[in-house]
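Researcher: I'm preparing a figure for a lab meeting and need a structural model of a single chain. I don't have an experimental structure, so a prediction will have to do for now. The sequence is pasted below. Please return the structure as tokens so I can convert it later.
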Amino acid sequence: MEPPFDFPHLDPSCDPPEPYLAAFEMLGDIWGELRAFRSSCPQDEFLKDLTAYLENQVVAAGLVLTIQVELLSHP
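Model: Understood. Here is the structure written out token by token.
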């Protein structure tokens, strides 16, 4: 499953700077690991709730990063 904050690049000249791309990639990796971990222990309510919370935090971080990239691309 793809991270919810992944977006297509329509114009390569508008791509975010490399550190931002690396941050998106890192958030995607973390999100994927959390999804895999949550599905590996469905019977433990605490871990299921904790990983769901952490997934939401990663998505929020991706959203903030996306907004920052938009601000950078429209001076």
